[in-house]
Amino acid sequence: MKKIMLVDDEILIRENIRECIDWEKEGFLYCGDAPDGELALPIIEAQLPDILITDIKMPFMNGLELTSVVRQKFPQIKIIILSGHDDFQYAQKALRLGVEDYCLKPFSAADLLQLLRSVSARIDEELRIRHKYAYTPENLFADLCGGLISTAAAYEAAAQLELQLTAPYYAAAIFTLQPQNMEESPEPSPASPDAEALLGGLLKEAADSFIYKRSRTEMVLIYKGSDPVQMNHTLDELCAAAKQRLREGCGLELSVSRGKVCERLQGIHLSYLEAENDRMFKQMSRMHSAAMLEAYYDPSAHGVLLDRSRLVQFLKSGDHRQMPGFLLELSKELEQMNWNSGYACYLMNDITLELVQSAKNGFRAAAGHAGILQELQTPLKQISSSDDGLQYLKQLYERLWEWRSEGADKHRELIDRVKQYIREQYDKEQLSLNDISKVVRVSPSHLSKTFSQATGQTITEFLTATRMDRAKELLKSTGHKTFEIAYLVGYNDQHYFSNLFKKVTGMTPMEFRKQGNTEEPLHAIRRGAGNA
């Protein structure tokens, strides 16, 4: 609805216009009125009407003065002048100031409505033209993939471009042309016009899809549909056919990186990020495939066995205080590495991919950092010793922890309330996600997703860790039997508690008590341990 505002010093005129027209029925919103220009300005600034109706002759600030100010400060507002026959010359001056139209007094409600509809139509046409020239299909698709346009704006732009965007599901895929002999040229080289035309033609044959050219060697496909299974099947067939045609017709290999099928229009961005990550992974794998082969002939490589789950867990729950000890443990393993070998380069790249992928999957703020793998290529190439490798990992963890903090800060109050409630209620056996969601007044699905993205742990993992922390304290400081401690921390089944305790700590409750373990309280556990 277009917002309408009226400025006239005659109260009867203001009341008649305000009361005699059913504004909502006519498709307008009456947002206010004022007796003169001076009093009108604050209302105009607050309401930002689409159309301003103003009389010419008013005290304090007349209509021409008001028009001049509004034209300078709010050029998008359309102005209609109310004018009597005696001051028509003023109306002509107002037209020269850039007002949209004028209405001679006296006038009827029908006359005013006809004029408002005419001005409203001009606003719509101007908006259509602006959007037509503001967006090309390529720009729209690029913004959808980049997450740079809202759903409403995307649908509006698509309508102006006569594109049918609406669908229940969407997926994105990146098609990259490469030479057949990757040993001679591991990096993509410019494709010939014939190859580009062939690939573009093949992708255009796909029904319910849109394509845009991202670079000289890359095209992006946005695919939509109503059945995720059928969409994946169709994409499989399209990719296989395109690879064969490019190989036979142009002597080029086609690499396809795909994101998962997602719901809603904004899901295009999520699918595109997955496809981009898959593309980077494939590129890095090609660059270091020789190093993987070299590992079979590098005796030093066989002694380096890094626990990837430990690296990922430290990303999710570690902090700066624990960094020195963590790096010390890693140094013992990395010092065995031959840093002049290709395998060392491969190993650091592989660790990088593992950690970045885990951060993107687990941290809410990671969605806006799609280019990090490209940024890390330079520091990765500069690693030539175990000290360099440890310093690189330290900086990588700090960078990814920034994502974790950003995601946590957005929901800090909610997360703190959840943690506090769990610490107070952990001894209740039936404590569940539904119970917690009712206390903090958000849906269970939203709470689960928000908590995981902000902390790197599920609520179940945090609850289990809290219970295990308390159990360790009781084992150290009391003489309670195992079944009593199990009950005190929320478990009625002693055997289940004992098995879970051993899974988390590596010891049974009795072994832990006998050893007088002095470790710090448990801050995190592996995924899957325990159920809320």
TrEMBL record:
Pfam families in alphabetical order: GGDEF_2, HTH_18, Response_reg
InterPro entries: CdaR_GGDEF, CheY-like_superfamily, Homeodomain-like_sf, HptR, HTH_AraC, Sig_transdc_resp-reg_receiver, Tscrpt_reg_AraC-type_HTH
UniProt KW Phosphoprotein keyword: yes
Compartment(s) of residence: Cytoplasm
Domain of life: Bacteria
Coiled coil regions, renumbered to chain: none
HTH araC/xylS-type domain span: 416-515
The protein's name: Response regulator
